[in-house]
């Protein structure tokens, strides 16, 4: 759902080659070549200290540590790297901390992982964009001003310094086994038309390279996520078509089970268990998403589904809008044992700012959101709050978050290529045997 503040606030700098861009070898000399080809100086000692603490959370074979360390060093030293002077002293006035946060956002793209505006356009305007005044202040325009679930317009996105927005192609569970695929295509269509209509403010993005270039050009990226595996209609072919249309993540379940995965309804208080997690076909879908390079989103999944996916996926996963179960025991949030698995998976959890998922009450504060961060540093991103409320010298945190997303996206692209190559090799061997 839309929120006054975009729900999942994640400070991320995705510096990786696009899937269709050639990868470049890393240089171990005094200068490093980033995946997007920039030559930059190696980072100073503070980043090395960050690496040491961060890698302790990973369960990696020793032979991989050198390669991972090299990638993290390169991430920290990327061509748009966060300045070393970007820090705020304890007791700094609010204006100084706001200035530091603004400087950070000039450098690192702020990515919102989930926004339901396209569904409101369908609900209020039947996807007729001629009647949609996106550039105006929708707080003053009915029916948007009267809706508790409408808090997005172009003005507020710009003021909030959003660099890239994942729009949700959401379909209600009532459409499952009926017209879910058609409605999903219509929602993808309205996202694309909205992006074209408000170009150059918005620009379509489908890769890390696109996001980096758009941020340089002061444009806002439009990205697409499909919310709910029921949108597939049980078809791998439909999944592949979605990817071709620009979809870059799929939430495996919405608020209902699919024929191949349990939603959060399987957990308390409902305990409506259908499959006990992910079925064999569900695992096939996850592996195909890995092959394509489409991100698996586990928000709204059951704990059993989360664990099954994390045991199956070769690529990092995300939670596009979830918070910490330890702080608010909603079945929509992520439990500590799953957070530990996400850390090993090198994935991301994007914090949901909805009051009932932050504090389990009707009211929540920024401090409640900041309270999420100690659960798991590698998956919770609260840098702006560090600047504004806790006076941290946040260079290390900036580096860790940049490195985390770099690894997520590098893994997603590279694993997709590896899986495809493995399948092609297997098919060639099978043909020879026949």
TrEMBL record:
User: Which chemical reaction does it catalyze?
Assistant: an L-aminoacyl-L-amino acid + H2O = 2 an L-alpha-amino acid
**UniProt region (Disordered), positions on chain:** 1-37
Keyword entries, A-Z = Dipeptidase, Disulfide bond, Glycoprotein, GPI-anchor, Hydrolase, Lipoprotein, Membrane, Metal-binding, Metalloprotease, Protease, Zinc
Its Enzyme Commission number(s) read 3.4.13.19
- Describe the family membership recorded for this protein in Swiss-Prot or TrEMBL: Belongs to the metallo-dependent hydrolases superfamily. Peptidase M19 family.
The subunit structure is: Homodimer; disulfide-linked.
Q: What is the name of the protein in this document?
A: Dipeptidase
- Organism field: Aedes albopictus
Starting at the broadest rank, the lineage of the source organism is: Eukaryota, Metazoa, Ecdysozoa, Arthropoda, Hexapoda
């Amino acid at each position: 759902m839309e929120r006054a503040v975009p729900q999942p606030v994640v400070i991320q700098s995705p510096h990786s080659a696009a899937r269709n861009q050639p990868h470049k070898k890393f240089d171990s000399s005094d200068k490093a070549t980033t995946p997007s080809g920039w030559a930059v100086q190696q980072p100073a000692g503070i980043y090395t200290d960050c690496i040491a603490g961060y890698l302790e959370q990973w369960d990696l074979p020793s032979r991989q540590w050198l390669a991972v360390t090299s990638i993290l060093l390169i991430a920290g030293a990327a061509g748009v790297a966060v300045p070393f002077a970007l820090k705020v002293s304890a007791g700094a006035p609010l204006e100084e901390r706001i200035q530091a946060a603004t400087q950070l956002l000039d450098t690192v793209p702020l990515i919102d992982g989930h926004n339901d505006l396209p569904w409101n356009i369908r609900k209020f305007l039947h996807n007729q964009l001629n009647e949609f005044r996106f550039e105006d202040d929708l707080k003053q325009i009915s029916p948007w001003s009267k809706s508790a679930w409408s808090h997005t317009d172009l003005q507020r996105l710009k003021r909030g310094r959003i660099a890239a927005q994942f729009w949700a192609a959401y379909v209600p569970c009532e459409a499952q086994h009926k017209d879910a695929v058609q409605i999903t295509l219509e929602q993808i269509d309205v996202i694309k038309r909205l992006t074209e209509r408000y170009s150059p403010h918005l620009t379509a993005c489908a890769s890390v390279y696109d996001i980096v270039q758009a941020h340089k050009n002061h444009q806002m990226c439009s990205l697409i996520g499909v919310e709910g595996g029921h949108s597939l209609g049980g078809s791998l072919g439909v999944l592949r078509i979605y990817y071709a249309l620009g979809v870059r993540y799929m939430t495996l379940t919405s608020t209902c089970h699919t024929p191949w995965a349990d939603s959060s309804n399987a957990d308390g208080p409902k305990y409506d268990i259908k499959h006990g997690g992910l079925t064999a076909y569900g695992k096939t879908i996850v592996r195909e998403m890995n092959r394509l390079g489409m991100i698996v989103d586990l928000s709204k999944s059951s704990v059993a589904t989360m664990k099954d996916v994390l045991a199956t996926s070769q690529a990092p996963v995300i939670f596009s809008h979830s918070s910490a179960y330890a702080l608010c025991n909603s079945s929509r949030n992520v439990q500590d044992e799953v957070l530990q698995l996400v850390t090993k998976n090198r994935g991301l959890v994007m914090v949901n700012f909805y009051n009932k998922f932050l504090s389990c009450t009707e009211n929540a504060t920024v401090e409640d959101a900041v309270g999420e961060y100690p659960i798991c540093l590698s998956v919770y991103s609260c840098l702006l709050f560090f600047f504004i409320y806790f006076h941290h010298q946040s260079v290390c945190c900036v580096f860790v978050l940049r490195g985390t997303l770099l690894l997520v996206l590098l893994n997603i692209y590279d694993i997709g290529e590896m899986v495809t190559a493995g399948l092609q090799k297997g098919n060639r061997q099978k043909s020879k045997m026949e």
